[in-house]
Every structure is written in structure tokens, then in C-alpha cells.
Amino acid sequence: MRDTTNWLQSVLIIAAGIIGAFQIGKVAIAIPLLRDDLGLSLFAVSWVAGAYAALGVVGGMAAGFVFSYFALRHVIIFGLLMISGGSFLGAMSADATILIVSRVIEGIGFLGVVIACPTLLRSMVTPRTQQVVFAFWAAYMPVGAATMILMGPMLMQGDWRWLWTLNGIVAATHAVLLFVLRPKEEVAVSRRASPTIGDISAVFKAGTPVLLAFTFTLYTIQYFALTTFLPTFLIDQMGLSLEVAGTVSALAVIANAVGNISAGFILRMGAPLWGIFAVVFTTIGVCGVAIFHASSPMELAVAAAGLCLGLAALMPSSILVTMPRLLSSNQQLALALGMVQQASSIGQLGGPAILAFWIEWQGWNGVSYLFILIALCGLTIAMLAKKMLR
């Protein structure tokens, strides 16, 4: 157990997650340019966005098992290099097929980063600071996505390939930093004993980690559906320019980052996890109607998007902060985080595709019914969580 928190290493580890999330935001803001350049339909673009999570869908927990055989820092560096290589390949894509393949490569790297980072981060902090540091870690997704959505129009200058190239450079540079600035004392903690069948059994027998993973799936379906297509919605339905739509969308995602960070402090004040779930899913249902109803003015839709992403962010952060306290070892934590990442990947892959299908089936105005359905499922889970966490 550490006596002091290594803040430099904590920042570097969290930054690796943020760079992984850059790759989600870059697609969201580049959708109009991708459609024009490659002639893609909205549904095809949803697969470009969702392919990033393809491996995580089928092997998130398995990846947690495999990655546990390697030094954590090496896994993160490998992940960043895969993200870099995928970004450079994507920048050279002439059609959707190569672009989707490049996104799968990026996704392999992202999976390594998000599984290894929390476990390595746990070894860099004291029990006193763990809850707060993990709350900041949980914000990596909205911080990274918002940064790309906000800066994307300026960085692209009308050519989405520039954004892919710059992301490749950033990921490779950070991989070098993590290698050069590695602490000497990490040798003892960077490799952990490989998980056993007993560890796998313990995670499933605990029950609560499985329920939390399922809850994460529902959250990520609405999160990735909304963040991926919010710029497109603002352009197509509200008539905003790419730059203005990007700024508005980034502000909404920043609200998500604030919610993620706030969750750690709210839990410390004694808020029950099931109560947070109930608030989050009620907000998703109400805001879904406010955003997508045909009569909603732009101001209401934008405010509702920010409120939805902001309050909904209390849930993933609460889950990630709670998970280390439910499991007795790093081996079990890695497996549980792999399960959560698998659940997240299902939402990341399915969210944009489900929303694109729903739009083509019901139109933008019918999307509110999708959000109501997610809310009802989530409220049912909140009641189950109340019993299991008692």
C-alpha cells in the first residue's frame, strides 16, 4: 500500500485514457465531412464510429484476462501505439472498408488502455485519494471526446484526414512519454499475478459487478448515440454550422465530464448508488423527449442535451469508483473492468447503430421513444440494485 500518491504518474495514466477518447470525438465532429468525402450513409457512418468498440464487444473480459499476463505500463504503451497506427491508416483510407478496419485497430489499442490504466492507477494512489483520483479517471471519456469535438473543426480545416494524422502523432508521443517517465518503484507493481478460474468465479458470484456492467451498457447506448450524432442533429435539424454545432456539442460533453468528476464527491457524502441510477435514468427519459420532440426549440434541445449528459455522467463514474471496493484483488478488478469495458463496448457499437436505424425508421422526432425505453429499463435496474447493495 502506498504512503503517498504519485500525482505525475496519475496524470500521465489519465491522459492516456483521454487520448483514447479523442478517437471517439474525432468521428463525431467529422461525420459531415466523412459523408461528403466518402459518400457514406448515416447508417454506414454509425459503423465507422462503432467499429472502435468491435473487439470489446466480443472479448472485453477475455482481454482483461490476457492483458493481465503483461506489465501494465507495457499494455498501455502497446495500446497507444495501436491507436497511433490505426489513426495513420485511417488517414489514408479511400473507402469505408479501410476506415472501419483502421477503427478496429484503434479499438484494440483503446481496449488495452482502458483495462490497464485503472489497475495501474490503483497502485499509484493512497486509499485516502483513491476515490477522488478515480472520479477524475472516470471523466476521461467526456474530456477526450469534448476536446476533439471542440477543436476538430479548427484542426481539420475542411479535411478530416488531418484530424486522424494529428491523433496518430499525439498517441505515439504519449507512448514515448510513458516509457521515458516510468518510475523506478513500479517494477514491483507493474506486473501482477495472473488471474485464476477462482477469480473469474468470484467476480460472477459477487453478482453486483455483473449488474453494474449491465447498467453500464444502457448508459453507453444513450451516451454514444447522443454524442455521436448530436453535431449532425444540430446541423440537419437546427440549421447550425459545423463550427457552431461542434462548440455546442462540446459544451454538452463537458457537462458530462463535470458530472463524472462530481460523482466521487457525491458518493463520499453518502448518496446510495441505486438512488444515483434512479436520478440518471429519469433524466435520460425526460431529456430525450425535450431534445428530439418536433416542437422543441433549439435552446430547449441544447439545454436538455447538456443536462442529460451532465446528470447521466454520475452513473459511470459511480460504477468505476465503486468497483475497486467490491473486489478483493487486482486480478478480480482487472476481470471486472474487462467486463465493464465489454458492456461499454456493446453500447459504443450498438448506440450509434441503434440510433441511426431508429432515425431511418421513425425520423429524428421518434428518437424520444428510444430514450424513454432506455429510462424504463434503467429504473428497473435501479430497484434491483437497491436490493443487492443493501
TrEMBL record:
Protein name (Swiss-Prot/TrEMBL): MFS transporter
Source organism superkingdom: Bacteria
Primary localization: membrane
Coiled-coil region list: none
Membrane topology term: Multi-pass membrane protein
Keyword Ribonucleoprotein appears in the UniProt entry: no
InterPro entries: MFS, MFS_dom, MFS_Efflux_Transporters, MFS_trans_sf
Keyword terms: Cell membrane, Membrane, Transmembrane, Transmembrane helix
Transmembrane segments annotated in the record for this chain: 12-34, 40-68, 75-94, 100-121, 133-156, 162-181, 202-224, 244-267, 274-294, 300-321, 333-361, 367-385
Alphabetized Pfam families for the sequence: MFS_1
Location relative to the cell: Cell membrane
Domain Major facilitator superfamily (MFS) profile: 9-390
Organism: Aquamicrobium zhengzhouense
